[in-house]
Specification:
Blueprint (H helix, E strand, L loop, with lengths): L9 H12 L3 H14 L4 E7 L5 E6 L6 H6 L27 H7 L2 E7 L6 E7 L2 E8 L4 E7 L6 H6 L3 H18 L4 E6 L2 E6 L4 H9 L7 E7 L4 E7 L11 E5 L2 E3 L2 H10 L12 E6 L5 E2 L10 E2 L2 H18 L12 H9 L52 H7 L6 H13 L4 E4 L3 E6 L2 E6 H19 L4 E11 L2 H9 L1 H6 L3 E5 L3 E8 L7 H14 L8 H13 L9 H12 L14 E5 H8 L2
Parallel strand pairs: 1-7, 11-13
Antiparallel strand pairs: 1-2, 2-6, 3-4, 3-6, 4-5, 7-8, 9-10, 10-13, 11-12, 14-15, 16-17, 17-18, 18-22, 19-21, 20-21
The protein binds adenosine-5'-diphosphate and magnesium ion.
């Protein structure tokens, strides 16, 4: 038999490697910016077109490359960062595998311009799908500019797999924020489709966080600082009252590299014990410095997980440090003295200053972080005074009684529904009861129907919004005084991209600034006090959305609004409100499920009830 094994040609090998290194435009952004940082840049510009699908360009003022290096940089395993295996244990650069540029050049049109400080002229190289199409001497600024165009142009399957521009932009912004947070001493610029999204000047950490997340962030930050033999911790946590419903602003950096660690996250969350409402997540920006040889550096190029040698000790230190700072800033109610002693030992033991006596902390043991809200209840429970949580039917249709409802129905009702309507017609008033501030119970001829009030209301609102957005002229109410709402610039950018969809839903925007939007009109079904909540929820939902081919924001929007505005479990409903809700639900096109697919009601027939007792 003849031999059948052969070496893959370079461009094929590069394409395969690219599959690992480059998942989406954001991966290219990460690799290029990290290269700029490794090259000692003090200023990095990122220019994007169409969420990076058309263009990703990174321009830096770093040390540049010689003519030969410029050409070599695109070869696989070509790196200036390590020379032998030993170097792997003393890494202080972001890259070291020498794969990124080769991979990117295999799947895009790449144009590199670079010049070293003392050279008169620089070089320009154009590569398409691993093939060098031109190399010449050019005059260019000191540093490096790499433009990556038409990503995945030669791998249609990968290109088609890319998500909507909104989502790909979100991924890029996430990467951008991570490096920008890790390097406050470098200035960063981000332009998308010629709009400036970020202009971050060289500054300190606190200012950098505020520049990225908006001026409101400043008052939220509690500084964290601790130094021990095995770890140095610096950074900030946000005060507990600013904890978010969605995880979002949670950043760990280890030796200036963004990482994810559910273990360390647990330590931080644990330090907030007793201070957070159920289901909310504290924001934090924590910078850990550990000896490079105490972490496993041999990690996958795109993975953000990491392995530490002394996980347990790090956990204890982190927890104690955060707790201590919260106590010092008078946000923790009381220091707990029943701490797990085993967790504390390594912390004290490793204290650098030798002395193990902690600085005196004056703590008000009666301090209650929630005392401003005399009647504190978790968010999901309505505060009676607000009034906006009580159920008011927004339905313009006349669904005052079951009779009308039955005759109005356009779609063929399911047998169950038919039964329901039929029997309800006969009970006339449709008496309802509220159970545990969560369910409505109504007696029908064939038995009873149990309705989940929150899910039912979600369905009602969802259909109402969809109808408003897609069929009718959006009904909008002009605000007497336009409302200005602050967002991070990334969020502003996102609102801007879905502006026309929001307008279809009834929002009116008076002005966009870098950190706020001024809203002059809102959909009739939203109250002014809920605007921020509704928009923040929408942004969170869009970030998580899974788009399909016929992607439109309308459905995501209607779902998101419905979720934000639906009456919650725990809301007491008057009999009238209960009836309106039941009526509204059964005049929906699909009353059986919530917009998220959960059952809104269940009927129990008399037979079923009987069988419970005849077992
Ligand atoms: P790695 O970063 O793992 O070394 P890359 O493929 O990302 O591999 O880059 C290859 C080499 O090209 C780098 O080691 C570096 O010498 C050079 N290089 C890449 N980008 C830049 C840049 N922006 N400025 C200067 N040199 C660069
Ligand atoms: Mg690199």
């Amino acid at each position: 038999m003849s031999d059948i094994i052969q070496l893959l040609p370079d461009h094929v090998a590069n394409q395969i490697a690219a599959g690992e290194v480059v998942q989406r435009p954001a991966s290219v952004v990460k690799e290029l910016i990290e290269n700029s940082i490794d090259a000692g840049a003090t200023s990095i510009k990122l220019l994007l077109k169409d969420a990076g699908k058309t263009l990703i360009q990174v321009i830096d003022d770093g040390k540049g490359m010689s003519v030969t290096d410029a050409r070599l940089s695109f070869e696989r395993h070509a790196t200036s960062k390590i020379k032998d295996a030993q170097d792997l244990f003393n890494l202080n650069t972001k890259g070291f595998r020498g794969e990124a540029l080769a991979s990117i050049a295999a799947i895009a049109h790449v144009e590199l311009k670079t010049k070293q400080e003392n050279e008169e002229l620089g070089s320009q190289i154009k590569i398409e799908g691993s093939k060098v199409v031109s190399q010449e001497t050019v005059s260019t600024a000191k540093g490096t500019s790499i433009a990556v165009k038409n990503l995945f142009y030669n791998i249609p399957a990968r290109r088609n797999f890319l998500k909507s521009d909104t989502i790909e932009t979100r991924h890029i912004v996430d990467e951008f924020q991570r490096v920008a947070l890790a390097h406050p001493d470098i200035s960063f610029l981000l332009h998308h489709n010629n709009n400036e999204v970020y202009h971050l000047k060289k500054s300190n950490l606190r200012k950098r966080i505020v520049a990225i997340f908006g001026a409101k962030m400043n008052e939220k930050l509690v500084p964290i600082s601790e130094q021990t033999d095995i770890i140095t911790v610096n950074g900030f946590v946000a005060k507990p009252e600013f904890a978010k419903k969605k995880r979002g602003e949670q950043f760990f950096f280890v030796n200036n590299r963004f990482i994810k660690s559910s273990y360390l996250n647990h330590a931080v969350v644990n330090a907030f014990e007793g201070l957070l409402e159920h289901g909310s997540h504290p924001s934090y920006f924590l910078y850990l410095e550990v000896p490079p040889n105490s972490i496993d550096i041999n990690i996958h190029p795109t993975k953000t997980e990491i392995k530490f040698d002394n996980e347990k000790a790090l956990y204890a230190i982190l927890r104690a440090t955060v707790k201590h700072s919260l106590g010092q800033y008078n946000v923790a109610p009381i220091l707990d003295f029943d701490r797990d002693a085993t967790l504390d030992t390594p912390y004290n033991y490793n204290k650098k200053n030798g002395s193990s006596s902690a600085p005196p902390i004056t703590v008000d043991p009666t301090f209650n972080p929630f005392k401003t809200e005399t009647d504190y209840k978790p968010e999901t429970i309505s505060t009676p005074k607000s009034g906006s949580n009580t159920y008011q039917s927004n339905f313009k249709k006349d669904t005052g009684n079951w009779e009308a409802l039955y005759t109005n129905i356009e779609t063929t009702p399911s047998i169950q529904q038919e039964q329901l309507f039929e029997s309800q017609k006969e009970t006339e008033t449709g008496k309802t009861f509220q159970i545990q501030k969560k369910y409505l119970l109504s007696s029908i001829k064939s038995g009873v129907v149990l309705i989940n009030q929150s899910l039912a209301h979600q369905r009602v609102l969802y259909e109402e919004f969809l109808e408003n957005i897609t069929i009718k002229e959006a009904s909008s109410q002009q605000l007497l005084f336009p409302v200005s709402i602050s967002f991070s610039s990334a969020d502003i950018e996102m609102i801007y991209t879905i502006k026309s969809d929001l307008e279809s839903a009834g929002f009116m925007f008076d002005q966009f600034t870098k950190e706020s939007v001024i809203i002059g009109g809102i959909p009739t079904s939203i109250t002014e006090s809920k605007i921020t909540l509704v928009l923040e929820q929408l942004l969170d939902d869009i970030k998580l959305e899974v788009p399909d081919a016929s992607f439109s924001h309308f459905d995501v929007m209607a779902k998101s609004f419905a979720k934000s505005l639906a009456i919650k479990t725990g809301t007491v409903l008057s009999v009238k409100e209960q009836e309106n809700l039941v009526n509204d639900l059964f005049s929906c096109k699909e009353p059986n499920t919530s917009p998220f697919g959960k059952a809104t009601f269940k009927t129990l027939t008399l037979n079923e009830i009987d069988s419970i007792f005849n077992k």
